[in-house]
Specification:
By secondary structure, the chain is α+β, with helices and mostly antiparallel strands. The protein folds into 2 domains: 133 residues, Ribosomal protein L10, N-terminal RNA-binding domain (Alpha-Beta Plaits); 40 residues, no CATH class. It is built from 7 helices and 5 strands; from the N terminus they run αβαβαβαββααα. The chain is elongated and about 85 Å long. The N and C termini lie far apart (78 Å).
Length: 179
Amino acid sequence: MKTREKKYQIIESLTEKLKNSDVIYLTDTSDLNVETINNLRRLCYRRNVSMEVVKNTLLKKAMEKSEKNLEPLYEALVGATSVMIADTGNLPAKLIKEFRKANKRLKIDKPLLKGAYIGEAIFIGDDQLDTLASIKSREELIGDLIALLQSPAKNVVSALQSGGNTIAGVVKTLSEKES
């Protein structure tokens, strides 16, 4: 296969991945040795995060074709770039933080976050990592919402149980709770 055809296939594959994802992280994994990068790849695989080292020129062409506004991320396309794609917005950020912490004794502070695209929001720079890690996932938000909705129901059930199961007892218990 010719080099031009190979590049075209890489661009097309990247374009499809970018089109189909709302969570895209660009990272710098340069200076990581083979063993360390393989450990990172294994961690990504276990967490359902796709990670791929790509050439910046090919990635930029795929970004342009993706039909998403990824232009602010073009400035991050300098040096070695790895693309992380996930279904959950905070997952790659948490993974990066965990990986760094696990390798702190080896004095490894990579991967560095170059930029991220999460549901049309753009984040640039490694200083955004904590912000991204603290974003709640869809599942976490649903859990919080369910907990909030259940809270008043728990109060009524509690009042029913402590009020002797009579209307007067329930009213008395609920009025005591409000004061």
